[in-house]
Structure formats: C-alpha cells, structure tokens
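Pasting as-is:
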Amino acid sequence: MENNAIKNRYDFVYLFDVKDGNPNGDPDQANLPRVDAENQEGLITDVCIKRKVRNYVQLKHQMSSPYDIFIRQGNILAPIIDKTEGNTAQSRQEKLCNKYYDIRTFGAVLSVGDKGAGTVRGPVQFTFSRSEDRIYQAEHSITRLCVTTEKEAKAQEKRENASTFGRKSTIPYALYRMHGFISAVDAQKTGFNDEDLNLLWEALLNAFEHDRAAARGEMNFRELFVFKHSNHLGNARSGELFDLVKISKKVDLPRNWSDYSVTPEEEIRKNLPKGVELITIL
C-alpha cells in the first residue's frame, strides 16, 4: 500500500468550555471534577478527549475500514491481534494501521495475544486540558424516589419515605485549553494522511455534539488554532507557538465564553516565525 502520509508537522491549541457539568470525574476523589491539587485549576485527561474523537469517528464511519476503531469499550484486544495476518510484528502493525483509524492516529500497545505486534507510536499526541482559572467543585444533593430494593418496597407499603440521597458534582463554568502535536515523522510509520488529518479536525470540532449527558452539562468547542510547519521537522519550537495564543479575563469571575478575550488571529499571524502558517479550522 502506498504511503500517502502527511509531510508537514503540526502543533495546535484547542479551546473548549463546560458549564454546570462534570467534564471528567476523578474516581479517586468520589468522581469530583479533576483538579490540580496545588492550584485548583481544572484538569481533563488526554484519554478523555481521545475517547470523544474515537466516538465521533465510530459514529460517522460505522466501524468500517479504514476508519474502524480499535479501542472500544469492553473490547477484548488479544483475539483481534491474534487473527491479524502477517509473519512479523511489522507486517501485523501495518495491517492494523491500515484498518484502524485510532491506531494510525494515536498509536497503541499491541504486545498482547499469542502473536503480538509490538507498540505503535501514534503521530497525534494530546496534553491534559487545563482550565484557565481555578475551578469550584460544586456538590449537589439529589434524591431518588423510585423503588429498587425489597426494603424500599416494604417502606413504600407502610407509606414511609422510600427515597434515597445521592450527590452530583459540577463546575459552574470553566474554559479549558489543550495543546496537541502531530509528528510527520511518526505519521510516515502509521500512514496517517491528509484525509485522517481532516477527520481529526472535524472530530475535535464536533467532539461534544454527540456526547451529551446530564452529568457533563454544557460542553462546547470554542477555538482551534493550528500551526502548520513547512517541513516534517518543524520551523519553530511548539512552546513559542503556543505562547502566541494568549487568553485574558474581562471580568473577575467568568461565567461565559464572552467573559474572555483571545489573541486575534491577525496579531498571531504578524508574530509567526518564518516557515509557520496559522490555519483557522471552522
């Protein structure tokens, strides 16, 4: 199969917000919204956003090759790898990359099953998302009136209160920022191409549209700044590019996207290093 992998390196800044929801609960903290213990800034793991990308691709392409999804909930991976044809780990990697979008994109650990295929390093990497300000972990008491146990049924018969109490955690509002990196060098190894790249942007723009849940409240994409380098190694360090995207508060206690200001695209373009192009993804 001809390798039409991307030839340019990309770095990007991804902005999204949450209102009255829990975007990524921490199981070690009674499912409270994840937070940096030192400064109380909100955190969302990279795998949480990758899951939303996978879900969007799965919905759009209905698990058909070459856009099938390898990492699915409850999926047993060893038999899939064992059934992959190929005499060497490299040949099995190539077949798996050709079929599965998420392996081509994010990579995977394939050293399972009787015929392991090693580890694939994906060209696309996300950082943790971090809120621009400290978050407030609001906790709400909720009640359940439906009967689910024999004890509750007996209480209901006696006209006693059969309700139970629970807790729900939310963030009133937070703007999150995630950084991403796309390596053209690693793309050559997995075959990540321009069609895959465009699908990634599409998935990020629509990541929250088909992932609605009462627990997550309102989550919305806001901005995506993509820096395209003119070659595969890059023309500037990613940190220099990310620093060009500055976010400032208009009010002391932001409660909406409009309460922030972001560096205008024109200003970012004026300060771009030679060989780097800013692409606006809408």
